[in-house]
Each structure stands twice: as C-alpha cells, then as structure tokens.
Amino acid sequence: MNSPGVRGGRDGPGSRAGGAYVFHLIHHTHWDREWYLPRAAFGARLVTAVDQLVSLLEEDPGLTFLLDGQTVLIEDYLRVRPDRRAALGALVAEGRIETGPWYVLADEQIPSGESVIRNLLLGSRDAGALGHRLPVLYSPDAFGHPAALPLLAAEFDLPYTVVWRGLGHQAAGSDLLRWRAADGREVLLYHLPPEGYEHGSGLSSDRGALSRSWPALRRELTARAATRHVALFIGADHHAPRRDLRHLRDALASLEPDSEVRLSGLEEFFRAAAPEARNLPLIEG
Question: Phi and psi at residue 105, in whole multiples of 5°?
C-alpha cells in the first residue's frame, strides 16, 4: 500500500479497556506451491501435511486450522486423495478447516484487477461447495495492497482482512484498524506484527522454555492490542499441524493466570474482537 493515510482513533492506537487478555492461538500454515523446491516436492509435502491435519482434527473436535486462505491447496490435495473429499468437506463445513476466500494467494499489485476478482470468485465458489468460506480477506504475504482492497472485501461480503507487509510496522501501533475504501465502505483490518504470520511458531510447549521466550513476544503483542483479544499465530511456511497444541495452550495458560488462552480459528478471533474494536485508527489509500 503506497503511503497510507493513518488517522488515530479518539483514544489513540493501542488503547483498550482494562482487565485480562484473551490470547487466541490460531493454528495455521503458510504454503507456497512452488518456491525453493519444485511444485511436485511441495505437493508431496502438502498431501502428508493434510493427511495429518484431517487425522488430528478427527481425533480432537476442539481444534481448528487455518489452511492459508487459498482453496487451491484443497484442490491439490484432493487430486491425490479424492477419497478424502467427504471427510475434508465435513471439516470445512464445520469451520474447523478454514479455507478461502482466495483460489490462490495473490500478488495484488501486479495482476490485473480482473484477475484478482476472478481469483476471489473461484475461491468463494470452491469454499462454498465445501460448505464454508472464511469471511476474511486473508493476505499474509503480499508485498503491498491496492487502495481498492477494502472495496473488494465489501463486494465479496468479507468484513475482515489480514495483511502484513505494505502498511509499515510502526504506521499506527495498533493491531486492529479501520480500512476505508474510496466509496466510504470499511473493513476491520488485523495488521500482523513485524515477524508476520510466523511470530508464534517458535513457542515451545515445554513450560520452562516457554517461560523464557513468551515474555518478549507477549510485550510486543499486548503493546499493540486495541482490545483485550490478542491473536497469536502458531505456524509458518510449510508447517504440518502441531500435535502438541493443547500442551502449548496449557503451558501458556499456566503463565497467564489472570488471562484466558483459547484455541481459536481466525474467524473466531475476529468475531470476538470486533464488538470491542472501537475508536480505531483509520487507514485510507
């Protein structure tokens, strides 16, 4: 996003009501279909990772997983595992595998506007066919964002969006902002911290190790928290699901006796934070 206009809310960035925090552990992966390995190699890894994911979610009905906001990963998986469509579709329909609204995560500045629209049309169609589309315009790894992005979000009935690069890490000092399109419509924006979507990937479920690594990350996340709800992304590039997630939650809860630690989906985080997201800084452009 080029030189965004940022206006502070009435109480200033980072202000929130007093009281305990609610830390939302958002279990996810970020997946490049082709990067430092060819597509076939990453595709083989994807099949193994999603096999493990389906097994884990079937074993533990309290878990949710964000599959990077792009339905092409499910298409790639089902091309190899067509017999798993019913099992995978049931988890998507329940909102436990979060997918869409993109078909494939987009570079939003280089392709034509028509390409971006068709991308969202395909992703919305595919996620809808599986039973549920994530209502978040999830863009964790693009290098900039057009001023029209909140307009697209509104047109596709996506009330929330997530970005990392392009805004500038110190532009507002708040994790939640209002992003206004040229026609006046707005979306609720979550701005990832400087480490991006990987910020919680190094947290250990061992309480001793966690007690050493958590305080610095906690200070960073709470300093920019606009509400008592704090998103903690657990995952990174090409990460398979973690089987120790409940142990991590319990270890973190033991270090946070005055706060709540939840295993949440991204949609759940937004729905919890939105009612408290008042007087937020405004972005235009």
Answer: -55, 130
Asked if 249 and 41 count as a contact pair (C-beta separation under 8 A), the reply is no
Do residues 147 and 182 make contact, with C-beta atoms less than 8 angstroms apart?
yes
- DSSP-based three-state secondary structure for 273: helix
Written as six digits, the tokens of 166 are 């392009």
Q: How confident is the model at residue 4 (pLDDT cuts 50, 70, 90)?
A: low
33's CB contacts (< 8 A; 6+ apart) are 39, 42, 43, 46, 72, 73, 76, 104
For residue 196, give the nearest of 177, 225, 216, 175 by alpha carbon. Answer: 175
Q: Provide, for the chain, the percentages of residues in helix, strand and coil under a 3-state DSSP scheme, each rounded to the nearest 5.
A: 40, 20, 45
pLDDT in tens, 172-217: 689 999 999 999 999 999 999 999 999 999 999 999 999 999 999 9
With 90 as the cut, is the pLDDT of residue 78 above it? yes
Quote the pLDDT of residue 285: 82
Is pTM, for the whole model, over 0.90?
yes
At 258 the pLDDT is 96
Q: What is the 8-class DSSP label of residue 237?
A: B
Bridge pairing between strands 97-98 and 176-180? unpaired
Q: Give 93's Cβ-side CA count (13 Å radius).
A: 9
